[in-house]
Amino acid sequence: MKSSTAPLSASTSRALTIAAAALLFLFLWWADGSMAEDLGLSFLPEPLNGYEVQILNLVAVYGILAISLNIIYGFTGMFSLGHAGFMAIGAYVSAICVLTPDQKEMMWIIDEILPSLAALHTPFWFSVILGGIVATLFALVIGIPVLRLGGDYLGIATLGFSEIIRVLIVNATPITNGSLGIKGIPSHTDLFTSFLWLIIVVFCTVRLLSSNFGNVLKAVRDDEIAAQVMGINVFHAKLFSFCLGAFLAGVGGALLGNLLTTIDPKMFTFLLTYNILMIVVAGGLGSITGSIIGSVIITVLLEWLRVVEEPLNLGFIEIPGIPGMRMVVFSVCLLIIILYRREGIMGMREITWNGIAAFLSRLGRKKENRA
Amino acid sequence: MSRKNVIEVRNVTMRFGGVTAVSELDMDIEQDSIVGLIGPNGAGKTTVFNVLTGFYRPTEGEVVFAGRRITGMEPHKICSLGMARTFQNIRLFYNETALENVMIGRHVRRSGHWWGAVLGLPGTMREEKNIRKSALELLDRVGLAAHAHEAASALPYGAQRRLEIARALATEPSFLLLDEPAAGMNPQESLELMNFIRQIRDEFHLTILLIEHDMKVVMGVCEHIWVLEYGKLIAEGNADAIRSNPRVIEAYLGEDVNHAAD
Q1: Angle at B48 between CA B191 and CA B239, to 5 degrees
Q2: Using an 8 Å Cβ cutoff, are A132 and A90 in contact?
Q3: Neighbours of A42 (CB within 10 A)
Q4: Which residue numbers of B have CB closer than 8 Å to A's CBs?
Q5: Domain total of chain B
Q6: Looking at the predicted structure, is the pLDDT value of residue A71 above 80?
Q7: What does the pLDDT look like over A330-365, one tens digit per residue?
Q8: Contact indicator for A241, A127 with CB cutoff of 8 Å
Q9: What are the chain B neighbours of A225 within 8 Å (beta carbons)?
Q10: What pLDDT shows up at residue A330?
Q11: Cα–Cα distance between B74 and A255 in angstroms, integer?
Q12: Do the chains contact at B100 and A2, CB–CB below 8 Å?
């Protein structure tokens, strides 16, 4: 239950948010090794290596993707499994935009690339936004017929959509280079870019969802009939949420493509949607902070669990490494989360500065009582 | 009577397959009146509500509301014309707080756009503040101010009923439909409810149509009553006329009304 008295004023909360963002960027500055270089400081601890930086990047990109699915599924209650499709659209649009004409001419070997696309060469940020916009257009076209479906039917229809997109990508060789995929995408997504996008996305979604427009989406999730009686155009609300989610998925996909530098149709199977869905459900349906925590935990856990695949020496017995073992352990972890916290780590709650302040003051009071 | 009709139901018939839920219903409801729709279970009362609020498109006939033909219009459009309702089984947005429930009701009257909220445009933010303020005021007027920040699902039953009415009022209706507002209330609560219904009628300049099984409430508060049986209108008139109508007594009221009259 929310407490009715806010211990912190709005301006304090804002200041704390800005401070936290500044701290995050300070950390990133150090982490990617440019702080020591820029300032010429030699006493700083060793920065993160490339592998760790990559994991951090993935955390940010998965965070964006999880939020985008959470808007659709967690906040508006539409069970959509088409996320990989939107991500593929974003990734391909962005990749085609950022590659130079020469690169494209060399890479498209099955079919010549369309001349109009070959000449296309845009800045990275523009390609990301364009990726989002094209994904939104697809969402609009697919959403108008399928959003009239409810529940599981919507899930199946969107799943089909995602597969259609994949097959289209395989076969539209003059545009997408077919099953060969696109290689050599410049790695534009560095720590600053990915986290800057994450912060922008979080800021905008929090603004939107904490306004009455967010309440309207939640009303549609909770009770469609009551929402209609309250004068809410349920279909519009759903379509809006679906398109917004698709836009952010397109942006996330574009960032992912520029992070991995290689994309191909095999990447965007149902498994990718499933990964994002897992983050959202484990983090908490209907919680932005839950999505972020989920993406941190799941991305880090997946990497960290690689230790169980290595040969293990217990002293008296040596266990050989079993490839794929980490997925077993990981699935057990997920089972435990779902069994003991069915609503995910955060449920529908959010971590707010007020919540933290209230928690700290409760903690302080408890200590006083004990003393 | 010189008062204007708020809603006119013309010869409405509603069939589901072979079942006729409502047949050839005519109703004119005058402005600023409190009127009732009664009848035994399964008589088609809630079907009438669903036709009026746009959930069902009547098989025949038409409904005119605020001077416009609303048959076939979508529920949210009808709401924006000034019709609001509550449900027999309460339908709140249970994951939201009481305040948020009422704020959702304000949405239909807002003019800002979502991007205004994202960008923090001053106009939208001002509107957002006004929505919150007026929702709090409304909660205060129905006596739920203390529960404003509690989840709707955590409220006691009576408070949930009042919250549902407050949420309906938030859409600024001119015509309010209450589906069994006194269901599950004890006599004392029913009495309070009657006063509450009269009070909101006067304060918000409403016309109210209610479905109710509690005869004390119906007879006590309604100026005009329609009686349905098997989807057919069998009687209409003021409380005294209904009470003494032999067909009504036979069909539905029986002993109850004599008790109520005592």
Answers
A1: 40
A2: yes
A3: 6
A4: 53, 55, 74-76, 79-80, 84-85, 87, 91-97, 100, 103-108, 110, 114, 117-118, 120, 124, 128, 131, 148-151, 154, 167-168, 170-171
A5: 1
A6: yes
A7: 888 888 888 888 888 888 888 888 888 888 888 888
A8: no
A9: 55, 91
A10: 81
A11: 41
A12: no
d(C-alpha A148, C-alpha B74), whole Å: 14
CA angle (A268 as vertex; A151, A203 as ends), nearest 5 = 70
Residue in this structure with the two tokens 């409380």, named with its chain if needed: B239
SS in 3 state form for B18-56? CEEEEEEEEEEEECCCEEEEECCCCCCHHHHHHHHCCCC
Name the phi and psi angles at B65, rounded to 5: -125, 130
The dihedrals phi and psi of A203, each to the nearest 5 degrees, come to -60, -50
> What CATH number has the domain bearing residue B139?
3.40.50.300
> Quick one: average pLDDT of B170-189?
91
Summary mean pLDDT of chain A: 89
Give me the pLDDT at residue A320, please.
78
Tokens of A43: 């006493």
A228 contacts B76? CB cut-off 8 A? yes
Is B181:B193 a contact under the CB 8 Å cutoff? yes
The closest CB to that of A229, out of B75, B107, B150, belongs to B75
Domain regions of chain A by residue span: 9-44, 48-283
What's the pLDDT at A188?
86
Q: Which residue has the tokens 């391909």?
A: A92
| Structural domain boundaries, residue B154 | 5-261
Say if residues B46 and B22 touch (Cβ distance below 8 Å): no
ipTM for the predicted complex comes to: 0.89
Q: How far apart are the first and last CA of chain A?
A: 28
Task: Show the tokens assigned to A247.
Answer: 């836009």
* Cα(B193)–Cα(B180) distance, integer angstroms: 11
Question: In one letter, which amino acid is B2?
Answer: S
Suggest the residue from A213, A217, A241, A247 to mutate for an interface test with chain B (most B CBs closer than 10 A). Answer: A213
pLDDT tens-place string over residues A282-323? 999 999 999 999 999 999 988 888 887 777 777 787 777 777
Touching check for A240 and chain B: CB below 8 Å? Answer: yes
Tell me if chain B has a CB within 8 Å of the CB of A67.
Answer: no
Mean pLDDT of B76-97: 93
The dihedral sign for the CA sequence B111, A144, B85, B48: positive
Token pair listed for A61: 């990109």
Separation between Cα atoms, residue A69 and residue B1, nearest integer Å:
58
DSSP string, B223-243: SEEEEEETTEEEEEE-HHHHH
Burial class from Cβ neighbours inside 10 Å (0-12, 13-18, 19+) for residue A35 reads middle
The Cβ of residue A121 has, within 10 Å, a number of other Cβ atoms equal to 15
* Whole-number pLDDT of residue B254: 53
Q: Give the Cα separation of A192 and B211 in Å (integer).
A: 61
**Of the ranges A69-73, B119-123, B188-192, the best mean pLDDT one:** A69-73
Cα distances from A352 to residues A18, A326, B188, in angstroms, run 13, 33, 42
Residues shown for chain B: 262
What is the C-alpha separation between A303 and A297, in angstroms, rounded? 10
Q: Please report the pLDDT score of residue B137 as a whole number.
A: 94
